[in-house]
Structure formats: C-alpha cells, structure tokens
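Feature request disguised as a bug report, sorry. It would help if multi-protein outputs had a clear separator. Right now it looks like this:
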Amino acid sequence: MHPDATRFLERAGAAGVPLVGVCTGAFILHRAGLMHGYRACVSWFHHEDFLEHFEGLEPVSDQIFVVDRDRLTCSGGVSSAHLAAFIVERHLGRARAAKSLRIMMIDEAMAAEEPQPGLPLSLATDDPLARRALLLMRQSIDAPLSIARLVDRLGVGRRKLERHFREALGMTPLEADRLIRVEHAKHLLRTTARSATRIATDTGFCDLPHLIRVFRAAEGTTPEAYRRARGGAAPGEAPGEADARVQPRRRVPAPGRDPTAA
C-alpha cells in the first residue's frame, strides 16, 4: 500500500474515526498497525493467507462480519451489504436499513454471527470446537485432513472432537467432511464445465470412481446425471450454455404460410 494511504489511515485512527475493512481490507488495516487489540473478520478462503502474513493473530472466519468498537471488518461479497445495513440501521434506523437492502434485492438483514457461506445448512452449529473443525475441513477440500492431523491442528483429543460432533451435529467428523466435499462437488457440477474427473480431484476424492460411489450414496444418482438434471454445463461448454441446450427450438413457418393458422 502507498505510504500516503497508510498515513491517512493512521491519522483517521488517531482521530477516533471508525475504520472499515472489507474482505482483504482487514489485511491492510493490520499491516498499518491499526488492528492491535481488535478482533477482525476474514473470509475462510483467506484465513490461511492471513495467518501467514500476521503471526500470532487469529482472525474470525466463521461469521460474516465483526464489529469491535471502532473497527468493522467483514468477509467480503454479500457480507459487505449486511455490514453496510448494520451501519445504516445504527445511524438511520431499521426501516432505512431494510430499504437499502431491498434496493440490492436482498430480502432481510443478516446478523454478524451468521456463518459465512460455503457450509451445508445441516452443518450449522454454535459449538465452537465443531465450528473450528468445520472451518479447517472447508479450507482443505482438495486435500482432506486426516482425523489425526485435524485434532493435532485443533489441539484436542480425537474422542473429544468426535463427542462434540456427535452432540452438535449428530454425525462423525469424517461424515461431516464427506458432506462438505459432496456439496462442493454439487456446486461445481451446477456452475462449471469441469469434467467429473477434474471435480473429483478438486474435492479431495481419490479418483472418479471414488467420487461416483460416495456421490451416489449421498444423492442417489451419479455426478453426470445430477449435472444433467440441474442443467449444469457439460465439459467443453461455458457455464450458461446448458440453458441454451434445453430451450425448445422455435418452429419457423414455411414460406407463404400464415404463422397463426392451425
């Protein structure tokens, strides 16, 4: 960041001006020395990058935004709108905050503690240990952590982790990890033209047969059948072309024929 911008932020912070970091804006504020003693929200996608840049600082990556006194940070994307709505409500009232969201075609405000997108709804939980474990799983979709590595990263025993998952989610950590990867595979099948083989690699499965076996057990169908049923893009075509494939062909009337005739 340019030194002039850093000095500007430093003067604003010294004057007590609230500072907002959107997405990787939290990186900039930390780098300028303006987040010491504050909590900061960072997208789960950038969580590891943050730890590499700022040793000893643990960002919040399991909720959409954080308000800590005069520092406001969010995970980016649509969470920026919800943080903005929070600010509008604080200064102008709930009605105007709701109106500002409707202009952006967002139905209602989300609280700061709402989980960041990317996890299936069935994995929503308030259990702190389970949430930390789910975050690590989500960050390593393409290279799943073994339970041994997971508990080592969390600093807890295997039995404790399994107990928390059983009580909070009614499943084992391995089952939750598998669900996260299947849901991500579904997302890629719907929204990209990647081959099923490539998706198997991107979601941490050993190979395509492994993905097919797990996917069929979870969804009752194969990845390619799921893609066709959801109108996803087939390999070799751009996302969005799938809609054109399924559009009915217009009938062109023969020359001289009244197109309104039966």
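(second protein starts here, but nothing in the output says so)
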Amino acid sequence: MRTFIGGHEAAGEDEDFRALFLGERDESPEQRSVRQAAARDVFADLLEESANDEIAMLNAAYAAQLSSVMIRPTADASPMNRLTDAA
C-alpha cells in the first residue's frame, strides 16, 4: 500500500509521521490547516493510548517535539506529564 501526504508519496511510516507534524515546505495554507487538524487528532489519540502503552507515550512525546507546539486537549495529558509520571 502506498501512502500520500499533501499529494506526495511518503517514503515510509517514519517519514509519514514526521511529515504529519512538520509539514511540507511548499504546502498551501489549506493543506497546512488540514494536516494540522489531522496531527491534532493523531496526537490526541496517542495521548489517550499512552496511559496503557509506553510506545504511544514515546510517540506522543516525539510528536510534541516535532511540532514544537504543545497541543493539549487537557491540562494534565501532555507527554511531558506522562513521562514524569512514568519515571
């Protein structure tokens, strides 16, 4: 199965994940808006799953670093809180 992001074929799952949170240089404002909405949904899902899944917790922390903007659906659901709680 091939995956496309913003009309471009993605190289692999790692590239898909990074592109979702980083975006493309030449993306239009509309493409950026759609990508960011999808990234927020993925991030929220990862945060929810991270309560019981260490990999999801690590992916959520990585997503937050990639986006360099903390997307917080709830005050105590941030990946940094999850990392401190897990330690």
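Even a blank line would do. Unrelated, but nice: The chain has a mean pLDDT of 75.
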